[in-house]
Amino acid sequence: MTVTNAATATDASAGPTFRGRSTRDWQAADAAHFLHPFTDFKALAARGARIVTRGEGIYLWDSEGHRILDAMSGLWCVNVGYGQQPLIDAATRQLQELPFYNAFFQTSTPPAIELAELLAELSPPQFQHVFFASSGSESNDTVVRMVRRYWAVMGQPQRQVIISRWNGYHGSTMAGASLGGMPGMHEQGGLPIPGIVHIDQPHWWEHGRALGLSREDFGLQAAKWLEDKILEIGAENVAAFIGEPVQGAGGVIVPSETYWPEVQRICDRYGVLLVSDEVITGFGRTGHWFGCERFGSRPDLITFAKGVTSGYVPLGGVLVGERVAQALIERGGEFAHGYTYSGHPVACAVGVANLGLVRQLGLVERVRDDTGPYLAAIYRRLQEHPLVGEVQSCGLMGALTLVKDQATNEPFAPEVDIAMVCRGHCFANGLIMRAVGQRMIVAPPLVITRAQLDEMGALILRCLDLTLADARREGWL
Ligand code: PXG
User: Fold this and answer.
1) Worst-scoring range by mean pLDDT, 6-15, 291-300, 422-431, 441-450?
2) What is the pLDDT of residues 282-293, one digit of tens each?
């Protein structure tokens, strides 16, 4: 399949139209008025955005009629795939019955209550309460407010500092971007805000190999960086540690098995709250309801968003473990925090329908026992490709690192953005895959079948071949 770059089409008016407008027309209006997230506005305006018009299952269609296999589930969120009727029905019914009411004025709505009840049932046993927001970023702002409030209520108000990791991602608000460890984000806006410090990530390929450590020993070493930081700051000043069980936006960094149990031990030892940011790893992505269950930690708080509604409508929140919840309930008085849309009835109704469908289809077990191991096997085969260095997968998240020399794992020269070249081929061949640094990553919808995983694997292989041909032609090898 070939994709026309509509920005270069000579006679776009003769091409297909969507809602009466040509692709060129949609692109012009987009460039004139829509500032896209994480985008170089000028470069996109010159190129023209791809206009995505429809979705069904794991596939998308653009305004030119091309079918695209969405191996990123939208943006790590469309876990049940596109076009699921139970979610559409739940939203429609709720929009008709009660599209909005707030939860501030001593009021509640049935969908918010039902979803809170369901989340308590599906999450690890220490979670009986939830605070709702509308996105992962907002939820992490709630985390910062809540852990500091907890320590104030507990008579230790000096416990303010939150420790997180470089190359972690926790959102784009002031607190979210500060918790995140993306230097490019910190540079824009004077971040991080006070009281947030970072340690290195548990990325063996990046940090452990050079130290000459086995993966297991490196996991312990990476956890030790947390202990060192707690001791440096003084445990009496540390409120919490936050991390993603598997770093998503950072490039699907799967930690060693030794990492999270040791992090748990350290948090326990110093009384530090543990926050598991499960915006990506929640609701089945790792083959477990929550990534913390896969990796053996017992967090005090869990951040969630994305997969709770499969992205059909915005919803996020914080699962609050009983240690924190009981302190806030029994001793906290009013918690001066909340959003207009905390517990939004339409979003919560879709959440209930979505999690019900995940359960009904047995998607968590399917990822754990069937499609997750199947993806791992496909990735093991891709490792034979000459461009591929490290391969990692966990449930339905996968990453391959592109290298110049497979024998030595030598990376490409910094000026060669090899992953972006590969991503370009994916784009042109009807596959959506993300490029992060030198890594190519996937996180397909949890409804993907074995046959569709084969189709995805074949497309990835074709795009790797095309990238290799480019590298040979351009003399990058
Ligand atoms: N925490 C984690 C772990 C995330 O992955 C957020 C918080 C923030 O969620 P909201 O809903 O505020 O975006 C995220 C979001 C990417 C990419 O390029 C990843 C995310 C968002 C946008 C892009 O991989 N993750």
Assistant:
1) 6-15
2) 999 999 999 999
Name the pLDDT band for 13 (thresholds 50, 70, 90). Answer: low
- Tell which one of 36, 75, 285, 302 to mutate to probe ligand 1, the residue whose CB is within 8 A of the most ligand atoms: 75
Contact 182 CB / ligand 1 (< 6 Å): no
- The response to whether residue 291 sits with its C-beta less than 6 Å from ligand 1 reads no
Contacts of 384 by beta carbon, 8 Å cutoff, 6+ apart = none
d(CA 133, CA 77): 16
Separation of alpha carbons 234 and 285, rounded Å: 36
50-80+362-474: which CATH architecture?
Alpha-Beta Complex (3.90)
Closest CA to 135 of 304, 352, 321: 304
Whole-number Å distance, alpha carbon 234 to ligand 1 midpoint, is 31
Q: Is the full-model pTM beyond 0.85?
A: yes
Give the DSSP H/E element, type plus range, for residue 353. Answer: helix 345-360
Question: Is CATH 3.30.300.30 what the domain over 85-360 is classified as, yes or no?
Answer: no
14 forms beta bridges with none
| d(CA 108, ligand 1 centre) in Å | 28
For the chain, helix (H) and strand (E) counts, in that order, are 18, 17
Nearest atom in ligand 1 to the alpha carbon of residue 306 is: 11
Q: At 75, which amino acid appears?
A: L
Residue at token pair 């951040």: 303
Amino acid at 164: S
> What are the structural domain ranges in the chain?
50-80+362-474, 85-360
**Rounded distance between C-alpha atoms, residue 437 and residue 203, angstroms:** 13
Task: Summarize pLDDT for 81-138 with one digit per residue, the tens.
Answer: 999 999 999 999 999 999 999 999 999 999 999 999 999 999 999 999 999 999 999 9
Closest Cα partner for 83 from 115, 57, 45?
57
